[in-house]
């Protein structure tokens, strides 16, 4: 079963276009959502949350549309923003009195437990909180109403590395339950190296990758070797190729071909997620994998 399904979504604005977007977010996994700034990631999240409407297509959350069951679906979603959209003159106590009625399964005791765990004072005004404290408050809110799907839009943006790691550890530990699903959009790719199981990558308004991360990293390889060995046929086997006098770097699905031809004179390694995004972003050869229908 999929936690989220986008089917043939189109959306056009002056800054960008989303062209026939389809992808799946599998239930029970952490799915990373990546792409360069301004490519439409936040817009897609807003469409998933029913804050804006696509021009065409359908969005399903747990096999339902927001139009058919908005209240029931939103009860199942914990939404963590990069910014805390609450009146900073409020205390946490005041904020809870505003938030709790929106959720049929709000758990006050659990919320207080998270506040204690995160060292967040219940009766202090939010304007006195650091950026890290505000993010932890967002997490506490999202985790306190029995949600099954957690949508995180740049959750570690603006945090220093120590707090960022702490927030990621919290997310990873709290969402270890295989019945819960996470969809996390971030430009800090190293965050995904720690927690992601699945990857959705958008480039130029189209979905380029929509697969399990292990499958992606086993499929693609980075090949380094002597540029004099390259010919046009080998170049056609790459999605990205960077040539220098001293050597070349290539991203390919056909590392076995390079290995069979050149043996030990080439170096073959697995890419990181960041390598993969950079190389596919810069690459001139298009890669589009069929959408996973499972």
Automatic annotation (TrEMBL):
Q: Per its UniProt entry, which superkingdom is the organism in?
A: Bacteria
Q: Which SMART domains match?
A: AAA
Q: Which UniProt keywords apply?
A: ATP-binding, Nucleotide-binding, Transport
Q: Where are the transmembrane segments?
A: none
Name of one Pfam family that matches: ABC_tran
What are the GO MF terms of this UniProt record? ATP binding; ATP hydrolysis activity
Q: Does the keyword Coiled coil apply?
A: no
Residue span, ABC transporter domain = 1-229
Q: Which InterPro entries match?
A: AAA+_ATPase, ABC_transporter-like_ATP-bd, ABC_Transporter_VariousFunc, P-loop_NTPase
Signal peptide (from-to)? none
Q: Which NCBIfam families match?
A: PSM_export_PmtA
The family database entries (PANTHER family) matched by this protein are listed as:
ABC TRANSPORTER ATP-BINDING COMPONENT, ABC TRANSPORTER ATP-BINDING PROTEIN ALBC-RELATED
Please state what the protein is called: ABC transporter ATP-binding protein
């Amino acid at each position: 079963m999929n936690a989220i399904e986008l089917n043939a979504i189109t959306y056009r604005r002056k800054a960008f276009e989303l062209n026939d977007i389809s992808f799946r977010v599998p239930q029970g996994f952490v799915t990373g959502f990546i792409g360069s700034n301004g490519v439409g990631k936040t817009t897609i999240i807003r469409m998933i949350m029913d804050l804006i409407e696509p021009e065409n297509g359908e969005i399903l959350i747990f096999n339902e549309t927001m139009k058919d069951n908005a209240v029931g679906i939103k009860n199942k979603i914990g939404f963590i923003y990069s910014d805390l959209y609450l009146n900073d003159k409020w205390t946490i106590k005041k904020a809870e009195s505003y938030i709790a009625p929106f959720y049929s399964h709000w758990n006050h005791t659990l919320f207080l437990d998270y506040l204690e765990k995160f060292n967040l004072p219940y009766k202090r005004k939010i304007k006195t909180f650091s950026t890290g404290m505000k993010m932890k408050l967002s997490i506490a809110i999202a985790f306190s109403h029995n949600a099954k799907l957690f949508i995180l839009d740049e959750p570690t943006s603006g945090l220093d590395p120590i707090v960022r790691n702490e927030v990621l550890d919290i997310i990873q530990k709290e969402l270890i339950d295989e019945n819960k699903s996470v969809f996390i959009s971030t430009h800090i790719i190293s965050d995904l190296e720690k927690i992601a199981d699945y990857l959705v990558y958008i480039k130029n308004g189209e979905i380029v990758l929509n697969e399990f991360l292990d499958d992606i990293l086993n499929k693609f390889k980075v090949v380094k070797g002597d540029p004099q060995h390259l010919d046009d046929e080998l170049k056609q086997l790459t999605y990205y190729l960077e040539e220098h006098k001293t050597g070349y770097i290539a991203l390919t699905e056909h590392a076995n071909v390079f290995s069979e031809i050149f043996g030990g004179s080439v170096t073959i390694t697995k890419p990181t997620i960041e390598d993969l995004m950079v190389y596919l972003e810069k690459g001139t050869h298009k890669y589009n994998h069929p959408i996973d229908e499972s």
